[in-house]
Amino acid sequence: MMIDLFIIKVGGNVIDNPALLQSFLEKFAAIPGKKILIHGGGKIATRIGDKLGIESKYVDGRRITDADTIDVVTMVYGGLVNKQLVAKLQSHGCNAIGLTGADANIIPAVKRPVKEIDYGFVGDVYTEKLHTGPLKALLDTGVTPVFAPLTHDGNGQILNTNADTIASSLAIALSEHYSVRLIYCFEKKGVLRDSADDNAVINLINKEIYQQLLAEKILTDGILPKLQNAFGAIDNGVKEVLIGHADDVLSNTTPKVAGTLIC
Ligand SMILES: Nc1ncnc2c1ncn2[C@@H]1O[C@H](COP(=O)(O)OP(=O)(O)O)[C@@H](O)[C@H]1O
Ligand SMILES: CC(=O)N[C@@H](CCC(=O)OP(=O)(O)O)C(=O)O
Fold first, then answer.
1. 76: closest CA among 104, 115, 48?
2. Source organism's superkingdom (predicted)?
3. Cβ contact 175:166 at 8 Å
4. CATH for the 5-262 domain, from 3.30.360.10, 1.10.260.40, 3.40.1160.10, 3.30.70.260
5. What residue ranges do the domains of the chain occupy?
6. Ligand 2, from 65, 71, 160: best to mutate by most atoms within 8 Å of Cβ?
7. Which residue, 33, 153, 202, 251, has fewest beta-carbon neighbours within 10 Å?
8. Shortest CA distance to 85 belongs to which of 29, 44, 25, 45?
9. Nearest to 127 by CA among 146, 110, 115, 150
10. What spacing in Å lies between the alpha carbon of 43 and ligand 2's midpoint?
């Protein structure tokens, strides 16, 4: 079956680079058919937190989100970044609508239980409880949903959820109705064998190669949640997952893909 829905995630390093963001959004707007954008913005939240005297801490690529931090990320992801992206997409002729996971109750989550680490107001998504109805309705009217990486607990609490996880959860839930290609866009050409060498792209990663790369400690920081989520998607019905450069987003919606294919 042909791919009939593209779910595309764009990370904070792209959003923070005006030239790269501009070219990414132009290309995203040019993708024909149904599509959803999920954005990060971790870098911007860190910078604005710094200005407010609120320090950022990460464990395994996830932000420790205390009471002050959840306010910062709600403002930055749900406000500044989301609305700027929507306005820019509108200027490129893409009829975008900005959402968080709380809107239309699309992404319910639970506050991550405290084990060795207290992540604070970080939400783990209930993939099986996602409400895809409102999204299908928007897609059917030609509107393009743009998600901030925020979820909610149903009791009035906004939660911070890694944007890669939001993207894979939406891709899994929507795979029931569509044939989905999930594309992670960032500022590198793919998963690299040597993170200092931008051209050392690994074209294909299966579970065996993934285990080897983990053992060799080639994967660190933000690439870890990306790959965990990519495999989670593949294992749960998503047809195709790609990790590639933001500039390659348009070609990555065609059969001629660039970057790292996860299988
Ligand atoms: N082997 C690797 N290949 C590519 N990127 C890597 C690798 N190891 C670590 N990284 C780092 O992971 C980062 C991507 O994660 P992150 O900064 O969270 O991106 P995003 O905001 O797009 O999700 C890259 O910018 C890079 O610095
Ligand atoms: C829980 C958690 O870590 N949430 C992320 C959400 C933003 C994000 O994922 O942004 P990037 O895609 O730009 O990294 C954070 O606050 O950093």
1. 48
2. Bacteria
3. no
4. 3.40.1160.10
5. 5-262
6. 160
7. 33
8. 25
9. 110
10. 8
pLDDT digits (tens, 9 = 90+) for 150-205: 999 999 999 999 999 999 999 999 999 999 999 999 999 999 999 889 999 999 99
Give nearest CA residue, ligand 2 atom 15.
42
| ipTM tops 0.90 | yes
As a whole number of Å, the end-to-end CA separation of the chain is 17
pLDDT tens digits for range 103-114: 999 999 999 999
- Distances in Å between the Cα of 241 and the Cα atoms of 8, 153, 171, 257 are 10, 28, 10, 11
Question: To the nearest 5 percent, what fractions of the chain are helix, strand and coil?
Answer: 40, 20, 35
